[in-house]
Amino acid sequence: MNKSPSLRAYAIAYLIFLYAPIALLPLFAFNDSKVIAFPLQGFTTNWFAEMWADQQLFNAFGNSLTIAVSASILSTTLGIFAARASTRYTFPGKAGILGLIMLPMVLPEMIVSMALLVVLMAIGVPLSLFTIILGHVLICTPFAVAILTSAFQSLDRSLEEAAYDLGETPASTFRLIILPLVMPGIISSLLICFTISLDEFIISYFLGGNQTVLSVYIFGQFRFPAKVPAVMALGFVLVCLSICLLTIAEYFRRRGIARSGGKDTGGFL
């Protein structure tokens, strides 16, 4: 059946609307003008040099890197347990528990951030990088569960049963058989959670206290017009980094599906 011309036009218009602002980043990142406007004034790399010389930027990036690595590892670890339990075992309240785990994926982040802030202040926990990590784990875990559930569902149960027949314990079977087979999904989950955490703004803004992270730093720089070109250069670097991470995650996702003999029905890219 031929595709509708109107549907094709809608898809093209949607993609232009979605990606045109991103396409403008390199234009203004290399534009020799402090004013973000057309016509372009010329080619320069001064904004990248200014970005590189900003020590506050590197401090914020270091904080974000610490948070993103911690949140991705914790979220993926929790996701492994949840995905394994949901695909292997039957227990009372399974659907409700999984629904609660996935709930942060659909809740407004503003509500989640305010709720976390109220709870942390009520129990006397000072705002720091640790509280940001807790918030990011809450947001990233549903994505890890979704990715890893697909990886665990594609496993052949006969491999696990064969390991039991050969004398392996459940623990050794999980460590020697299950984990290597789902490792592409684990790597994919780590990369996706890392990217989500690195880009997260609302939770970082609410729970950061006096700790500056990269997303909050970028938001603050827009108050100073002279800093905007350097921020555009930083945005271009971050977009390239995100594309690389998502591409690697998609590679490992497809590799995991191919190893398990499953059918690829779509992915991140």
From TrEMBL:
SUPFAM superfamilies: MetI-like
Superkingdom of source: Bacteria
One GO CC term, this protein: plasma membrane
GO biological process per UniProt: transmembrane transport
Membrane topology: Multi-pass membrane protein
Subcellular location: Cell membrane
PROSITE patterns named among the record's database cross-references: ABC_TM1
Record keywords, A-Z: Cell membrane, Membrane, Transmembrane, Transmembrane helix, Transport
Positions of the ABC transmembrane type-1 domain: 61-249
Entry annotated with the keyword Transport: yes
Chain ranges passing through the membrane: 12-30, 60-83, 95-123, 129-152, 173-198, 230-252
PANTHER family per record: PUTRESCINE TRANSPORT SYSTEM PERMEASE PROTEIN POTI (PTHR43848)
Family stated for the protein in its record: Belongs to the binding-protein-dependent transport system permease family. CysTW subfamily.
This protein's name: Spermidine/putrescine ABC transporter
Organism: Gemmobacter lanyuensis
